[in-house]
Design brief:
This protein has about 260 residues and is α/β, with parallel strands linked by helices. The chain has one domain (about 5-255): 3-Layer(aba) Sandwich (Rossmann fold). Helices cover about 35% and strands about 25% of the residues. It is built from ten helices and ten strands. The protein has helices spanning about 45-50, 75-80, 95-110, 125-135, 150-165, 180-195, 205-215, 230-235, 240-245, 250-255, and strands spanning about 5-15, 20-30, 35, 60-65, 65-70, 80-85, 170-175, 200-205, 215-220, 225-230. A six-stranded mixed beta sheet has the order 6-7-8-3-9-10, sandwiched between helices. α3 packs across α4, α3 (about 95-110) packs parallel to α5 and α5 packs parallel to α6 (about 180-195). It starts with 5 loop residues before the first strand and ends in a 5-residue tail after the last helix. The model has no long low-confidence stretch (mean pLDDT about 90). The chain binds adenosine-5'-triphosphate and magnesium ion. The site of adenosine-5'-triphosphate has 12 residues, from β2 and α1.
Length: about 260
Amino acid sequence: MSTPALEIAGLHKKFGPAHIIRGVDLTIAKGERHAIIGPNGAGKSTLFNLISGYFQPSEGSVTMNGAPISGLPAFEINRRGLSRSFQVSNIFANMTVRENVRCGVLHSMGYGYSFWRNIGNLRSVQEKTAEILEKVELLDKAHVPAALLPYADQRTLEIAVTIAGGADVILLDEPTAGMSHSETDRAVALIRKATEGKTLLIVEHDMGVVFDLADTISVLVYGEIIASGKPEDIRGNPKVREAYLGDEADQQAIGGAA
Ligand SMILES: Nc1ncnc2c1ncn2[C@@H]1O[C@H](COP(=O)(O)OP(=O)(O)OP(=O)(O)O)[C@@H](O)[C@H]1O
Ligand SMILES: [Mg+2]
């Protein structure tokens, strides 16, 4: 078996007395699309913050492509090929769509802020930016300030910026939150296309998205993974059904009899 994209071992996170992540072990193979599901407050975003270096673990380790990354600052983990989106949109509102994507591209090419003056000359940056804009179907809105985009397009732009850096491990935190059915379908298609050949870790509440996109699903409840496996195994797992008991919509969504 080849080296996994991510290996999480014995991970814990405490905020003062609150023990939020309570011993998470998770292996994610290269090229896998892995969804993390679980109730509100289970610790999903915290887990993303630990993997991406925004929080330091209280205990345990995270390894990416065979090298330990826990303890490294977020920018260093990003430089090594991991990029994440945020649950709340994190784009530059005053910049245009193109400028937002170009930021990510520049970053991946190692250009600092001082290069921005001569940006027009950096042909490869322009080409890469256009390629990404086309992939996420925002090329016709490239000149629009991000703040003026409809909400769903802002979230799509966030996905574009997340992948623009050229990272091969992509973490998306609730990318379709707040989208309509048709917007969600479009976003899923884009995510699939834009993350082709990459490793994807996604937190999602929309079970349609999860079962459509994921090869593997892990269920996080109160900071512990109670089940991990193929979508059909998760659907039939009694522990998962129990964790979702009381929420009829989710029961139906994971295929249970309500
Ligand atoms: N910086 C922090 N300091 C203290 N507590 C925190 C911090 N960040 C998160 N928590 C707590 O950790 C718990 C898990 O939060 P987290 O945001 O990871 O949940 P989640 O699974 O992403 O939930 P949701 O589905 O609502 O996004 C919550 O009780 C939250 O209050
Ligand atoms: Mg969250």
